C-alpha cells in the first residue's frame, strides 16, 4: 500500500479553463512533490475537465459537486489522505516552486523545537488588472489581534493538518463569504499557528471573485460570524466593531447611486 502523501491540495473548479493552467503549472513545478491533488468540480461544461484529465501525477477528481463553495471545500477535506491540507482554488497559483518545501520545513521546525503546530499560513500576492499589488504587512499572530481585525489570515496561503479539521470541524456550509474566518476563529482559539512572512500564493482579484463581488454582503456576513465568537475575546470584538462600522460606511458610500 503506497505511503500517504504529506500534502493534499484541494482545487475547486467550475468552468475554470481560463485560469486553471496557471494553478496546475504552479503545483506541478513544486520542488516538494510529496502531495496528492484533489479536484472538486461543480459541473464544468468548458475545457476544465479535459485539462484536469491531461494533468499528470497523483490526482483525484470529484465531479458534479453542488451546494456551494463551502461544501466543495469540505468534500475535498473528506477525500484527502494527506497529513496537511491546502485549498488552492482555480483562480490562484503558488508563488514559486519552493512553496510546499517552505511550508513542510515550517511544520518540521516547529516540531523539532518542541512546539508542534496544527496550521501554518503565509502571505499572498494579489494580481489585479494584470498587475501585482505589493503584499500587505503581516503582524505577528495573536488571537486577539485576529478577532479585532488588526491581522488577517489569507485563505489561499493556509495549510492545516487534517487532524485539526477533525478536532474543530470543517467549513460552515451555510456561509457564502466568511466561512474561512469562521474556521480560523475556531481553530485559532485552540491552536497557535506558525506564520511564514512571505507571499506563498498569488490571488487573482477580479470582478468574478466571490470575495471581490458583493463586498457589502461579505462584510455583513463576516460581522455575524465574528459575533458568534465574541465571548472568547469581547474587548477585541468591540475594537473590530469600530473598524466594521467605518468600513461599512465606506462601502455604502461607494455603492450609493448619485441622484440626477
What does this entry look like structurally?
The protein is an alpha/beta fold and 260 residues long. It has one domain: Spore Coat Polysaccharide Biosynthesis Protein SpsA, Chain A (Alpha-Beta Complex). It contains 9 helices and 9 strands. Strands 1, 2, 3, 4, 5, 6, 7, 8 and 9 form a 9-stranded mixed β-sheet that branches.
The portion of residues assigned to helices is: 25-40%
Task: Tell me the CATH superfamily.
Answer: Spore Coat Polysaccharide Biosynthesis Protein SpsA, Chain A
Gross morphology is globular
The CATH topology comes to Spore Coat Polysaccharide Biosynthesis Protein SpsA, Chain A
Task: Give the name of the CATH architecture.
Answer: Alpha-Beta Complex
The overall strand count is 9
Per DSSP, the total helix count is: 9
Instruction: List SSEs in N-to-C order.
Output: EHEHEHEEHEEHEHHEHH
Largest beta-sheet details: 9 strands, mixed
Kindly name the structural category.
Answer: alpha/beta
Uncertain parts: none
Taking the alpha carbons of the first and last residues, their distance comes to 71 Å
Under CATH at level 1, the class stands as Alpha Beta
Q: Work out the strand percent.
A: 15-25%
Average pLDDT confidence is: 92
Rounded to the nearest angstrom, the radius of gyration is 18 Å
Give the domain tally.
1
Task: Give a brief description.
By secondary structure, this protein is an alpha/beta fold. Helices cover 40% and strands 20% of the residues. The radius of gyration is 18 Å and the shape is globular.
Amino acid at each position: 500500500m503506497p505511503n500517504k502523501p504529506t500534502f493534499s491540495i484541494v482545487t475547486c473548479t467550475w468552468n475554470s479553463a481560463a485560469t486553471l493552467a496557471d494553478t496546475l503549472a504552479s503545483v506541478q513545478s513544486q520542488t516538494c512533490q510529496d502531495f496528492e491533488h484533489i479536484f472538486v468540480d461543480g459541473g464544468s461544461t468548458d475545457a476544465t475537465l479535459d485539462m484536469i484529465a491531461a494533468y499528470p501525477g497523483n490526482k483525484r477528481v470529484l465531479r458534479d459537486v453542488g451546494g456551494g463553495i463551502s461544501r466543495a471545500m469540505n468534500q475535498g477535506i473528506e477525500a484527502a489522505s494527506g497529513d496537511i491540507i491546502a485549498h488552492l482554488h482555480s483562480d490562484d497559483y503558488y508563488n514559486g516552486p519552493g512553496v510546499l518545501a517552505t511550508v513542510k520545513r515550517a511544520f518540521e521546525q516547529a516540531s523539532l523545537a518542541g512546539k508542534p503546530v496544527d496550521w501554518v499560513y503565509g502571505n499572498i500576492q494579489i494580481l489585479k488588472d494584470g498587475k501585482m499589488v505589493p503584499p500587505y504587512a503581516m503582524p505577528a499572530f495573536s488571537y486577539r489581534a485576529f478577532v479585532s481585525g488588526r491581522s488577517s489570515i489569507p485563505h489561499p496561503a493556509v495549510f492545516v493538518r487534517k487532524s485539526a479539521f477533525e478536532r474543530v470541524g470543517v467549513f460552515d456550509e451555510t456561509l457564502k463569504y466568511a466561512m474561512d474566518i469562521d474556521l480560523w476563529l475556531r481553530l485559532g482559539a485552540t491552536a497557535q499557528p506558525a506564520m511564514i512572512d512571505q507571499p506563498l500564493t498569488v490571488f487573482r482579484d477580479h470582478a468574478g471573485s466571490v470575495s471581490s463581488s458583493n463586498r457589502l454582503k461579505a462584510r455583513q456576513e463576516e460581522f455575524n460570524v465574528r459575533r458568534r465568537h465574541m465571548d472568547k475575546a469581547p474587548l477585541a470584538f468591540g475594537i473590530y466593531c469600530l473598524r466594521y462600522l467605518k468600513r461599512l460606511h465606506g462601502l455604502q458610500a461607494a455603492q450609493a447611486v448619485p441622484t440626477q
